[in-house]
User: Fold this.
Amino acid sequence: MDYHQKLAEKLSILNERGNGVLIRMNYIKKSCADPKLRPAILTDKTKEPAIKYINKKFPNIDFRGNIVSVKKPLRNDSEKVSGELTDLFNFDLQAVNFDFTKNYLDLIVTYTSVIITLSRIEDKKALVGMFNCAHEMTNGSSDPSYPRLGQMFVEYEHPWKKLTEEFGPHTKSVTAALLSLRMLYPRRNLPAEQWRSAQLLSLLSAPAAMLDPACCDTMACEYLSMEVMERWIIIGFLLCHSSLNTNQATLELWKMALRSGLYLTLTRDEVLNIHKVSEDLFDNIKGYSKRVADIKECRDHVLVNSGAMHRERRQFLRGAMKELFKVLEDEPGLLGPKALFVFMALSFSRDEVLWLVRHSENMPKIKTPEDYVDNQMAELLFYMEKLSGLMRKYSHVVQRYHVQYLAQFDALVLNDTIQNMYVCPEEESVLLSSFVSVLSALSVKQVENKEEFDLRPLRLDWLRLQAYTSVNKAPLPLKDYPDLAKVMNMIQFHTRMVDSVEELLHETSDVSILCFYPRVFEKMFSQSSEEMTMKRYLMSFPSVCSHFSQCAHPLCPEEVSALEKRSLRLCVTFLEQIAKQTSGVVLEICAEQHNLNDELLPKHCAESISAARYRKQKKPPPKKGEVQKEKPGAESLRKDRTILTNMDKMHLMLTELCSSFSLCTDFAVFDHTVIPTEFLLSHLEMRLSEIIVRMANYNKTTQEITRPSDLLAGLRAYTANLHWLTSYINVDVARLVKSVLLQQTVPLDSHGGQTITTIYTNWFLEGLLRQASNSLIVHCPTMHCFVNQSTDIESTFRAEEFSDISELRALAELIGPYGMKFLSENLMWHITSQVTEIKKMVIENMDVLVQMKNNFDKPEEMANLKRRLTGGENILKRMTIIGVILSFRAMTQDCLKDILDKHCPYMMRSVESLRDFVSPEADIQVTLNVFELASAAGLTCNIDPALVAAIGSMQTDNTSMDEEYKLSCLLLVYIAVSLPTMALDPNSLYNREHGGHNNNIHCLATAINQLAAAMFTIQNKNIEQQLKEFLLMASSTLLQLGQNVERVESKNRESVYLLLHMIVEESPFLSQDMLESCFPYVLLRNAYREVYKSFVITLGNVHLNVTS
Assistant:
């Protein structure tokens, strides 16, 4: 025996390289067929004559005079493809000549698959021919590999004919190899009924033997893929078909394989139509008419029976896998002795998945297409993933068990077997002795110390030994020592349990072929997602996408990028669908709970109160045609528990969907880590944001909107039920809710959609404040809200229902400090637009105002100047609008303060202390920074920093600070001298119930104080001094009202007098002493007596007349 042939090493390398070449051939085929990937030379119109000539004359191409202008681009585009095709000659079946069954058959099948795939590349001649032409034009000679490659293309024009000729001399060895399956294949290819009767894969069928190690004489054959065996049989007998007519056993084996299905996988999604190929081949061979009849009979059998048989197998495997997983999950220690059961279960399930995939994609026309549809595939994939995960999780248990098994049992049995051998040459003896020594050296301490095991050299030596002992005239024929083969095969499996569990899991459970059947894969997911009982298993589909990286091969790196994109697309699609379903159910439950919670709101109790009142008064309630509504809680009363409500069904669906997330917390798809729950949180975040906005129910046309308190109640109902989700699945709901609510405090959410901050800001500006500026709505200081005026125009809403303290507190709770800041900025924009117009009016009347400022104590002069003054009413109107806006802002700030006091009282105390600590003498910028902090917390400040910033932004380079100061002073003059004109307006009457005037002029007090403080702060002037001058001038002009004999002008004089008192009361810079020094207090007292003269207070049924 020549031990230097290294047959085992060559066999391993050729099989590995053959798979790589096969994948490359498939990639070339796909690239040439795909318009996006097709080489440019094949799509260039100018190259068409050259391509036609090459295809016609190939391989003997005379490029002189026939092919021109192809030198540089042709070489660049075709060099790579031609180089890949040349690799075929590095993969040659004749390089090995041995009888080692499995690897020998693998090599035959791989070689045949490469040739068949190559024959399916339509542009191979054009690519190789053009490359050779370019090579010859560049280098002056033909490519060295071209003659052999060209000759091969010609010889394999009809691949099956050539292959059968090539394998003719190998018929005996191939047939012998295939006949070794005559016991194994029929035993594996049984219907589900026999599996069920034999209790296949069940650990509970023999409880007494549960701890016994699972072993047999053919360990590796037990989890050998059925598809692999069928490929061996079909392709092997196609190549060596003569044995079908001479050996009955081969005929039976071949017919059984033909009855298994219609297609076999060559590679990726390239399949072989076994009946068509066999029939086409045998039709052209004399004496094979019986075989053709056998093929047709087998095809008919497949069409009638195969789909149902595989459907029943999948049904059986679902139950068997579930039972096996539950037992092993409960007792993971059984993974040691029963590891073989896991790999058998995974292999059987994988075979059924792959069979269904390749037949679903190429489904024949049959009467029972439902046999090729499986809406329960999710469950099978789920338990495949679960069992694989269990093996990975407890790999240390499996490793520890088998290390002890190898050292304390296998080594001893092997040693005894070797001692009983009567012939053992030196080379074989060295190998066998090394096996015993390696196994004996294993110990549990190595496992405890977490040492890395590498028993691949031992397995390679066993492969070498099989190679040495399997050839003709071997010194040590392995067939004479079956006990040695049995022991070594068992040892090989046990060693793989120590260092190659992951590799074995890939071999038995890899379903990466699904990556190449995206349409089938997505259809399986869609069908499973429609079944209620399958929803808990849906996560298996995205999890399977983590297998796809395992199908990449180093010999075809170009394919990796496309595989990665497709894998991620499928994974994300599945996760998005699962998350969409789950979030839909969650939010539907929340919506139902929101409706129930809404029934408990105080606004719905009026009917119950009315009914109770009638009962108390013993009056019959008014008859109505409506059916009496059920009281809240009636939905919880059950007469029959078996009747499921809609809520019951939704909770059941939610339980099923959330169970699917338990498969894994995360998994890797190529270099990407995927966390399924993040997809759920993302969907919930997006949907919840939409729901919150939808709950606001804002109609821009009719200006209808939900009250903030109602929205807050609904939002609390949603969030309370979302927190309940944590009892189903481990997700951070608190983070979700915080994220969503925080997004609602800014103008746009993370998806660019409107938020309730924007909606309520727009509504209060356009709906409430716009009507307030027209005096249709009045600011009511006594009730701290806005109220509707009694007018002929019917309002679409009641202002007090949206602007009282409870509603504005709810608003502050909803949009928070950030939202309030956005609202404030929009309010300031409206104020600055009014200030701009006011400044224009001041500039127009500047000369008159300067004179009035200098002559305010001269009544006759003032009367003349007043006639020249224009726009007095307009300026008061604009100042009133500013006052209304600032009054609304003050109300929102107060409510924000109340909310923050409740949520963070300690922080609020610190901010208040800091605000109070700032002295008037401090640097103005420092003061404004502190006031900005205080204002953000809702605290009231002497100077409004937002107003200062807004007015400051109006200044341009064209105006100096002195000019601005002059305009500010004249503005106060303008307002002061225009105050008496308000007495002409009948709406200037002071409303004692509201605590303000009917035309909102009481808001002038706020406007004058805050606007003056802001303007003079920017100009760095004394605010108190300027307001004193304003108070003096305003008092003077109002006192002149009393001297006017025309009663028309002074009918609301007393109401206007009260403005002075309001201005002083609201100002932090003015005092009552200052007011009394320029305006008699007796006039104020008489004014209050006049407006409060006589009104009625109703106490129950008693009317009291109250006189001042």
Q: What stands out?
A: Confidence is low (pLDDT under 50) at residues 65-99, 1096-1108. The chain is about 65% helix and 5% strand. Residues 289-330 form the longest helix (42 residues).
